[in-house]
Amino acid sequence: MPPQTHPFLILQSIGKTFASGVTALDRVNLTVNEGDFMSLLGPSGCGKSTALRIIASLSQPTSGVVDWRGAALKQNDIGFVFQEPTLLPWASVYDNVWLPLRLRGVSRRDAGPQIAEVLERVHLTGFETAVPRELSGGMKMRVSIARGLVTRPRILLMDEPFAALDEITRFKLNNDLLELWAERGFTVIFVTHSVFESVFLSNRVTVMAARPGRVFDEVAVDAPYPRNQSFRTSPEYAALCRKTSDVLVGAINATAQDLEAADGVH
Prior knowledge:
Distance between the termini: 52 Å
Helix content: 25-40%
CATH class of the largest domain: Alpha Beta
Radius of gyration: 19 Å
Number of helices: 8
Low-confidence stretches: 262-266
Order of helices and strands: EEEHEEHHHEHEHEEHH
Strand order of the largest sheet: 5-6-7-3-8-9
Number of domains: 2
Shape: globular
Number of strands: 9
CATH topology of the largest domain: Rossmann fold
Largest sheet: 6 strands, mixed
CATH architecture of the largest domain: 3-Layer(aba) Sandwich
Mean pLDDT: 90
Structural class: alpha/beta
Oligomer: single chain
């Protein structure tokens, strides 16, 4: 699905200061369009995960506005996939995926068609009765993605979901995620530390700088979809990765300069 041009979500001057006094975000301005696959890329401590949690209403900003452009989102409209699968260890794959529907009052029986559909899409048909200890790391993450998608959300928030996986599994899940995105048309905000992953997946890469976290720059990834292994090995992909890496280095250097300036004041 090609991304749309009309805004879906706007962060206006978002700031977040914790009780400890640490400022995680400072005047973050960000526009997400309907159907975007946007990656948030940046060094550790730049507030990527904090921004994601604010968007999900899991945390409240200290200042600024989260503007959904007048579209009052229902609870089902936001899906969240965490860095760790966070599965219930005693529950089956089926029951782990059922959880968000169960919390909304949908019976196990009535949830059956939705669960079966999403498990098929993440290639877990036949594993409905398995429990997490019987699954590989990649399969656990597939369960987590299925749980995030079972409510058919309008926006899927993903916080470094593939960071702990081996490269082969990560590539496969990247491909599967893009297929799901193309089929279902939801918007994605994807947090990652990987330049290569961000360029492969996204139509837009927002690069953040740290201390305090803020938007440094954005890279448009104009390569067409669908993307596959041929794109990964193309000169176009290599050039986009170099461009994004240069912007990331600029963000890291800007962070270092800010720290040096701050140190010079004391």
